[in-house]
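User: structure tokens for this one?
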Amino acid sequence: MAVTLKDIAEQIGVSNQAVSAVLNSKTNCRVSKEKRERILKLARDLNYQANMSASILRGRRSKLIGIFVDSFARYRTLRLLQEIERLSSKRGYRIVTSFTHDNIAHMKADYLQFQRYGISDFICCAHDYPRFKEEVAALFSGAENVVFMEKPCLPGMPYVRTSRVEAMTAMIADACRKGCKRFGTLYGYHAMQTEYTQRDEFRQALRNNGLEVDEKLLFEFPEKHDVDLRIRLAMEKMILPYRPDFLYVDDFPYTITLRTQLEETGRKIMIHGGNGDPLFRSIKLNTFDPRYEKIAENLLDLLLHPELRTTVPVIEAVYRRK
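Assistant:
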């Protein structure tokens, strides 16, 4: 049977209100230091758990955060989710995750279900769906406590933005010193905001180094999510005919597939990763530090402290030279 406030109060010889005040860290309750310590110790010994439903009815937060994540997400998003969970726990919150892909009906069902369970704080990492911009906007329109990872399609909503411009600029400068002259990148379908942002950041980094942008070396993957197909097309349409000597490839699965196909042709190209996956180090390739902890910290700050929403935090990735 679950331990109640009344059980603790009767054993200590105080009121239910006094026990509640101590366990909720209220400083204005008239409980002696000795009794406060006894209440806390007994609550620990009896493994007391607060009644969440009762707390919500009294107007308190559930201490739960709902997170929306795309179920096809790769290392970048899943690594960020780990940091959100770790930092949430340090602040006394737990996370509940909704995994969906290209399915606004499922996202809406989870959003409503979360709210029925008293969850009122949300972080959305799954909103970059080109075909469903209107549906996403309608779902979160008027929401007061939803924070987005990267810029959403809803104007005025709080979000955290990431940037790789500084890291890419340093990466290209370093590659130039090593003799590279033809710089290319592989990026996803242009309708995805996160993908064309990566392309535009690469263009800016080239210009920052005084280099001209060769559009033939910026290869856009087809919409279909097939790693082998995408890399084969990149080889046929860009790498073999235009011969870049440096490629930026954000994700590890694409990098290892590319390396395999390059080995079959005998071509050698300097490759740099972007998402911080430790597997890059296993094949001795550089990758950026995206600063996942800092991103998660800013998402939680915006979520739990609305007064900070006057500006958009921008987290710059870091280039670490070997």
